[in-house]
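Chain A, query sequence.
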Amino acid sequence: MKSNEFLFEKDIPWKNAGELMKRQILGYDEKIMLVKMQFEKGAIGALHTHPHSQCTYVISGKYEFTIGNETKVVQKGDSLYIAPDAVHGIKCLEPGELIDVFSPVREDFLG
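Chain A, predicted structure.
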């Protein structure tokens, strides 16, 4: 299981990721996955957990992230780390895009 070696943004379809959210899968194999997320203002990623390590980089926009019992506002240039099985969620305060890296691959995103 792996993506093509070269992926061009114009050729990658956006998939619905919830109300006011969509994603592009930018590359993956069994061990890692790169995903671009686009959020409209007011989009909410409800509190949830997953067994994957996650790193997120904010390309644009402004977001309220909760990880565990801590909530902070992040914006362009900020990043965060979410440990496996940590409760986390997001609220979009200003529209924008994020880059998420998951390890291992999020097979649920490929269906």
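The chain has one domain: 9-109. The mean pLDDT is 97.
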